[in-house]
Amino acid sequence: MVTTINTEALLTEEIVVAKNKKRRRQRDPLSRGVKVKETRADRTFVIAAYVLLTVFLLVVLLPLLNIVASSLSSPQAVSSGRVLFWPVDFTFRGYAEALANPAILRGFGNSLFYTVVGTAISIFGTVAIAYPLSRTQLFGRKVITGGVVFTMLFSGGVIPMYLVVQSLGLLDTRWSMLLPNAIGVWQVIIAIVYFRSAVPDEVYEAAQLDGASELRILWTVVLPLAKPLIAVIALMYAIMQWNSYFDALLYLRNADLQPLQLVLRGLLILNDSGAGGDVAEQLRRRELADLLRYSTVVIATIPMLVAYPFVAKYFNKGIMVGAVKG
Question: Could you tell me the pTM of the whole model?
Answer without folding.
Answer: 0.71
